């Protein structure tokens, strides 16, 4: 599965153009694809992607269904515009917006209640990796974030130091972390962090990489397509 995380990019016209390009380039892809777009553009993208294999996702939600929560968007709302996936606990939300594991857990439960498939992001910072704390950090996140949750949640391993930095994690680093996560929860584990057309084949060759969560390179349909094709080639699904 390959997921685009557009983050806070594009105006309305740009988002629809990017969505249409992805549709043109990738409607015959064999792997599962999802585009996690800014909420404003979801409804129009839903129309664009209908009758294709490209699914729609959001990048965040608030855990209550409705109420006096100015500026927030709920799982119920996302579902009503055709979302099937939602990214939860991205490191940018944890670091910039102060989301803690308790909040992430509530958000996951709300997504599941409304039949959205959550993509839970976990990952260590550079200093945590340098201090050999990677597995302790991941275990702590997984235990707290997934408390009381048995339903299928997709996990994205996103080392914070690799996000948007051009510093991609090495295959052996990814392999051992994905193995650790899969021992904890039997589910798909995606890799995220500077995945691009140049490194996609190497990263896809890591046996327990079940896909990617792609930031920067997903803004360009050609680059996104090259990542998808490399993944299909490496996994023998082309
Ligand atoms: O944060 C990411 C995806 O959620 C990764 O972003 P980049 O692919 O831009 O490094």
From TrEMBL:
InterPro entries, per the entry: Aldolase_TIM, TIM_sf, TrioseP_Isoase_bac/euk, Triosephosphate_isomerase, Triosephosphate_isomerase_AS
Binding site for substrate: 5-7, 164, 194, 215-216
Function: Involved in the gluconeogenesis. Catalyzes stereospecifically the conversion of dihydroxyacetone phosphate (DHAP) to D-glyceraldehyde-3-phosphate (G3P).
Subunit structure comment from the entry: Homodimer.
GO cellular component, one term: cytosol
Subcellular location: Cytoplasm
Gene: tpiA
Pathway membership: Carbohydrate biosynthesis; gluconeogenesis; Carbohydrate degradation; glycolysis; D-glyceraldehyde 3-phosphate from glycerone phosphate: step 1/1
GO annotation, biological process: gluconeogenesis; glyceraldehyde-3-phosphate biosynthetic process; glycerol catabolic process; glycolytic process
CDD domains linked to this entry: TIM (cd00311)
Family: Belongs to the triosephosphate isomerase family.
Keywords: Cytoplasm, Gluconeogenesis, Glycolysis, Isomerase, Kinase, Transferase
Active site: residue positions: 90 (electrophile), 158 (proton acceptor)
Protein name: Triosephosphate isomerase
Listed EC numbers: 5.3.1.1
Keyword Iron-sulfur appears in the UniProt entry: no
Record Pfam families: TIM (PF00121)
Gene Ontology molecular function: kinase activity; triose-phosphate isomerase activity
ATP-binding in keyword set: no
Catalytic activity from the UniProt record: D-glyceraldehyde 3-phosphate = dihydroxyacetone phosphate
């Amino acid at each position: 599965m390959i997921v685009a995380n557009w983050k806070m990019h594009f105006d309305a016209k740009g988002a629809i153009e990017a969505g249409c390009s992805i549709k043109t380039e990738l409607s015959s892809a064999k792997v599962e694809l999802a585009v996690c777009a800014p909420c404003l553009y979801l409804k129009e993208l839903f129309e664009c992607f209908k009758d294709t294999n490209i699914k729609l996702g959001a990048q965040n939600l608030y855990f209550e269904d409705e109420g006096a929560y100015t500026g927030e968007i709920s799982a119920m709302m996302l579902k009503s515009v055709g979302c099937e996936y939602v990214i939860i606990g991205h490191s940018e939300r944890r670091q910039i917006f102060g989301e803690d594991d308790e909040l992430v857990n509530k958000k996951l439960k709300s997504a599941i209640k409304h039949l959205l498939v959550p993509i839970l992001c976990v990952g260590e910072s550079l200093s945590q990796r340098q201090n050999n704390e990677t597995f302790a950090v991941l275990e702590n996140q997984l235990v707290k974030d997934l408390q009381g949750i048995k339903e299928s949640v997709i996990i994205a391993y996103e080392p914070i130091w690799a996000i948007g930095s051009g510093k991609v994690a090495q295959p052996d680093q990814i392999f051992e972390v994905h193995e650790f996560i899969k021992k904890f929860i039997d589910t798909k584990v995606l890799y995220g962090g500077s995945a691009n057309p140049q490194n996609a084949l190497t990263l896809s060759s890591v046996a327990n990489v079940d896909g990617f969560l792609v930031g920067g390179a997903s803004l360009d349909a050609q680059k996104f397509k090259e990542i998808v094709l490399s993944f299909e080639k490496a996994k023998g699904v082309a």
